[in-house]
Amino acid sequence: MKTLTAITLVCAHFAISAGAQSLRYSVAIPYTVLSAYSSQQSDALSFTGNQAALATTASAGIGIYGERRYFLEATTAYVIAAALPAQRGNFGVTVNYSGFKNFNETKLGLAYARNLGSSADVGIQFNYYGYQVPSYGKASAVFAEGGVIFHLTEKLNAGIHMYNPMRAKLGKDSDEKLAAVYKFGLGYDASANFFAGGEIIKEEDKPVNVTAGMQYQFAKQFFVRAGFLSESSTVFGGAGISWRNLRLDIAGSYHPQLGFSPGLLIIANWGNKKSTAGGANISE
Fold it and tell me: At the top level of CATH, which class does the domain 2-270 belong to?
């Protein structure tokens, strides 16, 4: 009975979200993008929240995050991102997947970012999105997203991000469109070990959502993250350990009605570090 109730709540939650198109705004899971506006705590997944964060990537890296939403296989979500520094800007690749065999969504993205002097970074990403329901059909769309991050001071960063501003259609013969989303973010590096940041998010046909969080590195190898989403009153957090070029996080989030969602994050960096004009390096 408990399982049936949980599945019913999840389906109701997703049905409401799908009506507002928020299911298809799966750019990244909030835990993975908290450091997008940090000059000290950025990592291989940061640019999935704002592509401009890719410009300050100092070494090649890859991040993988998986989350079993509400402990249900049907709502499992994954994100993979790889960052590659180059001489004239940096490149990134992302893969998002969520769902199960009877309904799933996939997004593939190719990103590019570079410094605009020492005071700003800019980035853009081109995406292919598709979903399929085996007994019903499938649809896809190609669209873009991008952002700018301004380095207001050595410790304070601000930025804007636009997701699908042209409102791409799902298929040639359909009137259904992907939602457009606009974000404004702030990040403050109080020290080399403590960062706090947040975003104001306006998704098409939905109320304004606010996300905020912090990361504290209390030892060279250990750190914690925590934050919340106002839209669903969800809180999230996690603890991580790093060793040489590897990092492992055990994370999770809690929804008041749907319950707990466990997650696991792995990040690996390699190669020589590249100096950056406007930002900091990936923290080790």
Answer: mainly beta
